[in-house]
Amino acid sequence: MRKILTVVGARPQFIKAAAVSRVLRAIPAVREVLVHTGQHYDDNMSRVFFEELEIPEPDYHLGIGGGTHGQNTGRMLEAIERVLLGERPDWVLVYGDTDSTLAGALAAAKLHIPVAHVEAGLRSFNRRMPEEINRVLTDHISDLLFGPTETAVQNLLREGISPDRIHLVGDVMYDAALYYGEKAEKHSQILRRLGLVPKGYILATVHRAENTDDPSRLRVILEALAQVHREVPVVIPVHPRTRKRVEALGLLSLLEQLLAVEPVGYLDMVMLEKNAQLIATDSGGVQKEAFFYEVPCITLREETEWVELVELGWNKLCSPERGVEGIVAMIRHSLGTRGRPARLYGEGKAAIRVRNRLLDL
Ligand code: UD1
Ligand code: UDP
């Protein structure tokens, strides 16, 4: 019997872990212990994903969220260590680049429990991003590094990580998109609920700290979207971080000019993405999903970790420093454009590869 302890905590991790958990749990000789740090805790940021993606109830819910980076990471580290000392798993499995990822990896590494990192090797080369710190540190204390792309693998090799620890597996989010995409078509009523016409609206998401915590950038983004909304409806499921900043900065009147909704579940999000005319986002996951569904994407950042999307023309970087008119012009210009077709993220078998490598199958 192999015991694998998975640490998740934030929205994108539920989606990534759902894809891997499903194939892990299909093997009778595996016991997966699921730890939810509590980093994301609202029902529409957490519970909805467990229900829709049929993720089993966490074995441990640590209830740690809402603090600063130091508070969250420190409290998670202490609580995860306690769980690890009790469970003594064969592997600790972590995903992506959040504070939960780093806390899980660090707690395990200090106890000499092997760590496997899914979505290893991504780099923005911008150390001001909390995620970049989490990625670099996690990769350097992981025993198995599962890279989604060739670029990610090259980044790891350049940092001197031993090639025998690195495995190019593809992207587990693509696995999830393939598996749940059909389910979304069957179950989601979101277009009808919001009165949207397929290919008749723009989908936007904004939650990155560099955009929400800088009043001028947040204002520019919202003003640009509000201007575009006068021509094409802009739907924006609002991340709780963004909602709080908008309220604190007195920008609610701008948000109210858009079709602003609470965060939506994954199946509704997939439908919103598939049917959008264009996506404007600062999310990592949403950039890729735009490509999966062949929707042009504008990334409201200076750089991206998913550089291949930019190279193929599916994604255009648009720094909020360009100002309101700059963003509006780029959105208008990109409506109706297409990138070059390519297979960038595997064949939907990333989760199976992760499992097989973990279990030496
Ligand atoms: C985190 C990740 C980010 C990821 C994002 C996915 C880090 C450093 N950042 O950012 O990489 O892209 O999740 O969505 O780990 N909040 C709520 N309810 C919730 C969750 C958050 O109100 O359910 C509010 C709280 O005020 C919290 C703030 O949002 O303090 C920020 O949450 P946090 O998890 O620290 O960072 P995210 O911005 O969500
Ligand atoms: N997502 C969702 N509902 C929303 C916004 C996003 O289900 O209201 C999904 C989205 O489809 C993607 C993932 O959440 O699969 C991306 O998470 P997020 O943007 O929070 O984080 P990032 O990928 O930037 O780390």
UniProtKB/TrEMBL annotation:
Its EC number is 5.1.3.14. Residues 24-356 form the UDP-N-acetylglucosamine 2-epimerase domain. Gene3D superfamilies: Glycogen Phosphorylase B (3.40.50.2000). Keywords: Isomerase. One of its GO terms (molecular function) is UDP-N-acetylglucosamine 2-epimerase activity. Signal peptide: none annotated. It is an enzyme of class 5 (isomerase). InterPro entries: UDP_GlcNAc_Epimerase_2_dom, WecB-like. Belongs to the UDP-N-acetylglucosamine 2-epimerase family. This is UDP-N-acetylglucosamine 2-epimerase (Non-hydrolyzing). It comes from Thermus brevis. The gene is wecB.
